[in-house]
Amino acid sequence: MFNRLRSDGISWIILIGTVLILLEVSFYDGGVLVFLFIAAFAIYFGRKNLHKKSGKILFWFGVISLGINIFNTVAFKFLLFAILIFIIMRFADSKKHPKYIAPDIKETFTQSQEPLIMKKAAMQNEWFGTKRTPEDVFEWNDINIQGIIGDSVIDMGNTVLPKGTSVVSVRNILGNVEILVPYEVEVSIHHSVLAGSIEIFESVEPKAINQSLYYQTPGYETAGQRVKIVTSLWIGDLEVKRI
């Protein structure tokens, strides 16, 4: 439940941030986008070189710049004002129409609980940084991850894929995705990207701009063992290779 709430929270943050940026660009000039992209790239490359002093400086410069740019937008100030007005209206309405809670007594009965098995996923959501499957042998569970900035590496060579359809879903704003698939497994790939390159086996698309593409190996529909890959990136490269 906590992971689900955290994932929903990240999705809402991304959605609200995107709306704020679009509002700012719509009513004013697009200069804010330039500063936001500069801050995003500073965070990304600084995170890659955090072991160096220059990387740490670049990373925190990007974080601070991103925060200042978002907080200084007129759209963000308007959102805070709208939230304040909403809270005041709800408070005034609660004073006029108070809610009364009465106990609801029902006959108790025994209901058998359906047993559930919770398994730990091989990969977890990370806001920043590289996400990868374990280097040792691991038990396969469908992968569904998302992040803001960072690469994702999924190696299916260290696990045993079950019969039927296995699912891999990756959503990211800035970063590359690398997926390693065994030779005997059929694959379908649905990829959406704003800007980046695509390399799937021998097929290469060096410049994919605002595209949604679908790839499928010939025997996918009738295969007893197959992998369905769904990826969504704002800026980043997708690479799917055989191992």
From TrEMBL:
Residue ranges occupied by any Cell wall-active antibiotics response LiaF-like C-terminal domain in the UniProt entry: 127-240
Domain of life from the UniProt record: Bacteria
Transmembrane segments: 12-45, 57-89
One Pfam family it belongs to: DUF7649
Record domain DUF7649: where: 11-89
Keywords recorded for this protein, A-Z: Membrane, Transmembrane, Transmembrane helix
InterPro entries: Cell_wall_LiaF, DUF7649, LiaF-like_C, LiaF_C
One GO cellular component term: membrane
Protein known as: Cell wall-active antibiotics response protein
Taxonomic path: Bacteria, Bacillati, Bacillota, Bacilli, Bacillales
